[in-house]
Amino acid sequence: MTYKELYKDIKKLGDDDAAYCRYLLDRSLPELRQDESGVPEDTAAKHAECVKRLRDGEPLQYIFGYAPFYDTELYCGPGVLIPRFDTEILVEEAIKTLPQNAYFADLCCGTGCIAAAVLKHRPDTAALCLDISDTALSYTERNLGKYGLTDRAEIRKFDVFSSWDSLPPLDAILCNPPYINEKDMERLPENVKREPFEALYGGKDGLDFYRRVLSASKGRFRRGTRIIFEIGYDQAAALKELCPGCEIKKDYSSNDRICIIRGSE
Ligand SMILES: C[S@@+](CC[C@H](N)C(=O)[O-])C[C@H]1O[C@@H](n2cnc3c(N)ncnc32)[C@H](O)[C@@H]1O
């Protein structure tokens, strides 16, 4: 196989082409375009293996073992949700608005992407990272470690539906919970189905976690309540109903994406 042929193969990946090229080679994609020389055997073999895994429906980020998020690059792999661009608006809001020296929970932390980005940009804050999944917690530990943030974070196994009595008082909860409803779960693309069911499924109507967090967090905050939820693009009306005083903000694709709950609401 020549580099020119490899270039054509990689271009078929669409938006992910440059990232894939970086994973495979120490060269930029445009450099390969007219290069008729042969690709080393080990690189060609690595490429063939990746193509096979992609054809089997494996997400590209699981193959790489990392995913970009905000201004970080985080470890991820089978057993944990791949951090999404959609979640960056929640991080941005938290960085801008968390009170000074805030102690916040990254509830349903997954890879720890929210805590990692917020702690990195707000050195005055500290985090409690909570998730039910041991795999997720181990990724959170690795990702916070990668950016030297573990001294400002506690990582704890926690079930949102269990008692909240063991949690310390908090200034804020940042939470991207599972929020896909029963119907939409059936229509998920093959590569998304490779992500953990428990990271996606939010109950029959997709709202189980919002209801639970809203009721269980009442009276548990040190200062004025501040919950920032990520929500599905079509869940704003439902959240307004659950929490009439909340504010909905859109993401960079103009979809409703976060729900902010302030004060004593
Ligand atoms: C949508 S993912 C969000 C992960 C990460 N915060 C992000 O934005 O990429 C939801 C996470 O909730 C966790 N989870 C599911 N059920 C839970 C429960 N009952 N209690 C705590 N965490 C739970 C999953 O393990 C998963 O990591």
User: What would CATH call the homologous superfamily of the largest domain?
Assistant: Vaccinia Virus protein VP39
Task: Please work out how many helical segments DSSP would assign.
Answer: 13
Shape: elongated
- Whole-angstrom Rg: 20 Å
Tally of separate domains? 2
How much is the average pLDDT?
95
- How much of the residues is beta strand, in percent? 15-25%
Helix content: 25-40%
List the helices and strands and how they pair.
Blueprint: H1 3-11, H2 17-24, H3 29-32, H4 41-55, H5 60-64, E1 66-69, E2 72-75, H6 88-97, E3 103-107, H7 113-121, E4 126-131, H8 134-146, E5 153-157, E6 172-175, H9 182-186, H10 190-193, H11 197-200, H12 208-216, E7 227-230, H13 236-242, E8 247-250, E9 256-261
Parallel strand pairs: 3-4, 3-6, 4-5, 6-7
Antiparallel strand pairs: 1-2, 7-9, 8-9
Bound molecules: S-adenosylmethionine.
Describe the structure concisely for a colleague.
This protein is of the alpha/beta class. The chain has 13 helices and nine strands. The chain has helices at residues 3-11, 17-24, 29-32, 41-55, 60-64, 88-97, 113-121, 134-146, 182-186, 190-193, 197-200, 208-216, 236-242; strands at residues 66-69, 72-75, 103-107, 126-131, 153-157, 172-175, 227-230, 247-250, 256-261.
Features:
single chain; 265 residues; alpha/beta; Rossmann fold; 2 domains; seven-stranded mixed sheet; two-stranded antiparallel ribbon; elongated; binds S-adenosylmethionine
